[in-house]
């Protein structure tokens, strides 16, 4: 009988990466005590005799903990010690040969660096796929095959949903990014979960491998608990939504969250002033050196790609990563993401490094991220009447990216994949000033910060952030559009520039407004 393997925390060994003074078998045993569920012995430089010896001593310890052992590349070694099976790469013994030599009762895992390799291994009867590399790593040169969580998600999506094949990801996975990876890879449409994460250095290089393994195991389990828990019924009747919106907007001055914004040079000043007017505090820190120390203190981070430079991009990568680690809402404004290849690449790189809580863009930006060309761009603006089915566009992207998507325009569409809202507030003067979309990002970030600070969650360990960010996004959009409507009626407004000042003034008066009376929102 082929062993039923639990792939949750899959250790791939590397004796050359052990900390000075740590013995291989001691480290292995500690990691098994910490919760490693399957081990792969990976040796690249030793001769066959020594390989068999190490494999025997590795198997003795694995047996003590009832943990299956696989051998990297070497079918002969696996046969010699009669372990659970092997892992083979694309340039090792072909799967069919490995199966013939090992027989039906051994487990065979195959490396998959792309969809074609994954499908071939699935059709060939592999028991599991090692999908990677997710990120770069010092352990092995994988620079030509880094796919990010989105690449692994595409592999999962391409697999036959009825196939029993299991999947793990590998490459640069550590306790500080494992939740982000699991959230980014899980393929919602077919409900195909990853079966585990394969890790080398995060465990092997640690002086405390037991603790390192416990951390990984706890996060993998927390993610699963979160996915398997039936969520509380989401608020979606319009009265409850608008009540919640008012609660969030009115709580901004009490909570006074610090809103970090990597803004663009055209609109940064308006964004900072809008933050203050809403009752929050802006911090426009956009250099790498600030990110680690600042991140624990912020309520949310807004990343706006409008005038992104190489230095700012590095800060965006780091700031977003810390936001995922510290469970801070991360709002991504992919300004003009489809306009140039540099912007397309930058958007892709950012989304591969961290997981956004909300993506906010105009129709052209949301279309570019969705891979649709129905709506085109002119500079930073969207051209034409928009999508035929905007509900479907936002819902699909929200499902794919597992986040809230806000598509702004004459009508705004917001979806978390389950619920979708249409907002028809706003004023045409918003289209005559630069940066109204960027300031909308500021308001969404502010409302998401409040939602996250005020709403607890039983399953927060398995989440990247807490709070109902669908409703917070509605709150952010309404806050801006209703203040614009009120500003537009003021006698002192003579055109776009006076409107801009009045608009920011009115953001600070929202507590005096009955938002439910002015809101034009439908939730489907
Ligand atoms: C679980 C898992 N996935 C992928 C690999 C990589 O295997 P391979 O492509 O054979 O490369 P080497 O490990 O031989 O360098 C793996 N070992 N484990
Ligand atoms: C052995 C291996 N194979 C990879 C692949 O992508 O096929 S990445 C990798 C090394 C992973 O090491 P770490 O957990 O230290 O990043």
TrEMBL record:
Q: Would I find Acyltransferase among this entry's keywords? A: no
Which GO biological process annotations does it have?
A: thiamine biosynthetic process; thiamine diphosphate biosynthetic process
- Organism of derivation: Wallemia ichthyophaga (strain EXF-994 / CBS 113033)
Q: In which pathway does it act?
A: Cofactor biosynthesis; thiamine diphosphate biosynthesis; 4-methyl-5-(2-phosphoethyl)-thiazole from 5-(2-hydroxyethyl)-4-methylthiazole: step 1/1; Cofactor biosynthesis; thiamine diphosphate biosynthesis; thiamine phosphate from 4-amino-2-methyl-5-diphosphomethylpyrimidine and 4-methyl-5-(2-phosphoethyl)-thiazole: step 1/1
Please list the GO terms describing molecular function.
ATP binding; hydroxyethylthiazole kinase activity; magnesium ion binding; thiamine-phosphate diphosphorylase activity
Protein name, per record: Thiamine phosphate synthase/TenI domain-containing protein
Kindly indicate whether the keyword DNA repair belongs to this entry: no
Residues covered by the Thiamine phosphate synthase/TenI domain: 9-203
- Recorded catalytic activity of this chain's protein: 2-(2-carboxy-4-methylthiazol-5-yl)ethyl phosphate + 4-amino-2-methyl-5-(diphosphooxymethyl)pyrimidine + 2 H(+) = thiamine phosphate + CO2 + diphosphate; 2-[(2R,5Z)-2-carboxy-4-methylthiazol-5(2H)-ylidene]ethyl phosphate + 4-amino-2-methyl-5-(diphosphooxymethyl)pyrimidine + 2 H(+) = thiamine phosphate + CO2 + diphosphate; 5-(2-hydroxyethyl)-4-methylthiazole + ATP = 4-methyl-5-(2-phosphooxyethyl)-thiazole + ADP + H(+); 4-methyl-5-(2-phosphooxyethyl)-thiazole + 4-amino-2-methyl-5-(diphosphooxymethyl)pyrimidine + H(+) = thiamine phosphate + diphosphate
Query: What Pfam family does this protein match (any one)?
Result: HK
Protein family according to the UniProt entry: In the N-terminal section; belongs to the thiamine-phosphate synthase family. In the C-terminal section; belongs to the Thz kinase family.
The protein's role, per its UniProt record: Condenses 4-methyl-5-(beta-hydroxyethyl)thiazole monophosphate (THZ-P) and 2-methyl-4-amino-5-hydroxymethyl pyrimidine pyrophosphate (HMP-PP) to form thiamine monophosphate (TMP).
Which cofactors go with this protein? Mg(2+)
Q: Which UniProt keywords apply?
A: ATP-binding, Kinase, Magnesium, Metal-binding, Nucleotide-binding, Thiamine biosynthesis, Transferase
